[in-house]
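Lab notebook page, bench 4
Experiment: in silico fold of construct C2
Operator: M.H.
Input chain length: 274 residues
Purpose: comparison with the prior construct
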Amino acid sequence: MRTNQPLVSIITPVYNGQEYLAELIESVGEQAYPNIEHIIIDDGSTDEGATLAILKQYAHLRWWSRENRGRFATMNEGLEAAKGEVVCIVNADDMLMPGAVGHVIEYLEQHPEYDGVVGLTQFVNEAGAPYANAPFQTAPVRYYAYLSQISHCSLYLKRECLLRCGLLFDPSLHYVGDYDWILRILAVLSVGRVDFHLSKFRVHATQTSRRNRRAMVEEQKRVVAAHHINPVLFTICKSFVIGVHDAKKLGCTWANSGPKGAWQLIASHLQHSA
């Protein structure tokens, strides 16, 4: 790796993130790579200052707080404010894997033909223990439209390419802006892949996608139509992916929590599907 190591910007939008935010900050701070800026934007948290109290504990952060504008508008703000050559967006409840940033920069320097790189994502539960991973993560990136196998917390991109091509998030979307964003990225940028884990994605009950499933599905239909994705094939693939993932989650829950935990998972799924 060259002596003048490029700056990497980790961008984190946060709203009432006191439960997991410190773990993310520590995971970024523990990276062996020496040239990282961590930008955290507090999107109008309403937790009586709990999120701000955590941010004030870390002098190395670039952070600010303002009124609520939504997570995708906040992500755009971070992308525009970032100073790094390479950027990655990591939510406040997720974490970086040890050595992730160093692996990314080494890969990009060995493969200058790529505008970015995506790696695998380790799914974890509320306590941070390994959970059932999303299926098909090693599938070629060209299948993303139907498999949705890329998590933006494991996607590193050259910032100049994003801005030059106008690849910001659509702030009119509330639930699937990341799906739309990655579709647009893959249409115009060249993204390589590494087959090791770059991040941890935390699965928990308060996630937006779990609390707003119906609205998310309707918004997803709009994005599928806008990108001229075959809706029948999309529905078939989505159902298959969800089925495989749910079976993995059930097996993992049974192994960790027994039949009682498995039944609670089923009950929760039925509740959110109703």
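Observations: The radius of gyration is 18 Å. The first helix runs from residue 21 to 29.
Next step: discuss at group meeting.
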